[in-house]
Q: What sequence folds into this?
């Protein structure tokens, strides 16, 4: 057993121990602790000792584009989020577009970090074509998650939602287990609904037309304007943040956030928190062993604590 | 009969004939021409001769908040969109938050104008609580549309989508006609599904959870950070734009947009165009008479052309 705190600390040290290393490490460990191992330390498979240092955003600009194809992706996204906080404070609003991004995990920890810095942050990621447009039959866009965070403490909200009904990992799992897929998840190569994982050629958008349009929004921002679409070296990711305190005393955004949370939950809604958890949460021995193996490879030492 | 071109020209003159007047006038006339009269010149009912001049955004800032409660809303949104284009070109990215906005029509014409200026634009509007959260039973947020536009000519995309299944206007129309509502549209005062318009107490989010979360995204940006939520004088509206050409030669966003459109339509999807139409489109005599009546009131002259 190892706590989130200790696992993230050990991983951050192996990643260089700077602020980006700490943010990337805690993001990956958190995913494992949330039971989402395919967004967790499995990403370390992509780490290489000769990964390029993460390019710094140009602090003189409110908007930046970065090619991350030679970087370790979780560090690149973390570093971009940290730089973005400074730019958003300086200019009031800022954005960064990353391309060539390989597996980086979940968006939630990065937008949450920006919310902790007092900003409203929105992020999205495009990816390889797995999802058909609404009404269509062939895959055109990725599962294209969108995330938003604002606020601190009990009122904080962290949204992190895929725009597809399922992920290709879900389909691969069903292929292995042989379990039938739920209805309305996927199409076969002829564009017909299918519940047989081995026949899946395209996933469907979540919620029909609105999920399809939201996936298209993410593709237009991260893939078209951000330049990520069609890059064989990795995905397109954007992060945007602005400083609501710039409104001055006219807008008490913290009171409005507290009021909206109260109304939302009183109205019967679930207030999304993006799956954060206590640093004292414990991970099991299987995780601890996997972490040891990764750390041994990264530090060039044999496994063992 | 009157063409869109001539109707918009006459209305723009009555609104002062500047760039904002022209944009606002064409947005309203276009809505009528698209068969959406409740987003059209009916908005002129709110026009008063003593409406405050539209506040100019502070050109020295990438991000601005404006109280529009004393302004004619279509002019205020048009003026903000025009100022935003300048700020986005100057800083690379910019945003404006309007509050106290009364009926202004559709978002699509304003983001389309920014796309014509070479920008990617995103806008959203919150409003009075009509829509329940996913899984909830009481209304908490508005029908909260989100819009995005990028590109020019044949490849241009204009998304403009409400995050609710229906609008309160749809419910009012059904109340008058007595027609039953489709399933899955609305809840009664006890939170039970209803198809009886007179019993509707809350609308449902479009597409279930994802539409609910997207409505929450719009509320958090326009209502919380933008300060619009709970303002009895009107809605919160945000418009955000950035300049994809700032990426330089590394990202050919126009080629990527053309490629995405080709893939999207080949895959069976509908490429959204936001309902623009030819300036030569003709509007019927009923519209022409309504326009005359509005113009007569606005100019203090008796109706008649």
A:
């Amino acid at each position: 057993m190892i706590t989130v705190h200790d696992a993230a600390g050990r991983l951050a040290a192996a990643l260089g121990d700077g602020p980006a290393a700490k943010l990337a490490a805690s993001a990956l460990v958190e995913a494992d602790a949330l039971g989402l191992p395919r967004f967790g330390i499995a990403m370390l498979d992509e780490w290489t000792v000769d990964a390029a240092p993460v390019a710094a955003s140009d602090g003189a600009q409110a908007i930046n584009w970065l090619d991350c194809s030679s970087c370790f992706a979780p560090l690149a996204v973390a570093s971009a989020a940290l730089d973005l906080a400074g730019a958003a404070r300086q200019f009031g609003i800022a954005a960064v577009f990353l391309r060539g991004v390989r597996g980086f995990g979940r968006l939630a920890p990065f937008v949450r970090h920006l919310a902790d810095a007092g900003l409203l942050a929105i992020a999205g990621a495009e990816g390889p074509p797995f999802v058909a447009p609404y009404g269509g039959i062939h895959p055109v866009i990725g599962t294209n998650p969108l995330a938003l965070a604002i606020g601190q403490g009990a009122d904080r909200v962290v949204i992190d939602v895929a725009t597809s009904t399922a992920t290709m990992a879900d389909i691969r799992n069903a292929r292995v287990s042989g379990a039938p897929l739920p209805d309305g998840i996927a199409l076969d190569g002829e564009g017909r609904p299918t519940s047989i994982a081995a026949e899946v050629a395209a996933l469907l958008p979540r919620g029909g037309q609105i999920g399809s349009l939201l996936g298209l929004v993410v593709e237009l921002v991260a893939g078209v304007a951000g330049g990520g679409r069609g890059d064989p070296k990795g995905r397109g990711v954007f992060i945007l943040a602005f400083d609501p305190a710039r409104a001055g005393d006219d807008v008490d955004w913290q009171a409005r956030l507290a009021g909206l949370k109260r109304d939302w939950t009183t109205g019967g809604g679930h207030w999304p928190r993006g799956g954060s958890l206590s640093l004292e949460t414990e991970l099991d021995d299987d995780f601890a062993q996997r972490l040891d193996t990764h750390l041994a490879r990264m530090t060039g030492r044999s496994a063992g604590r």
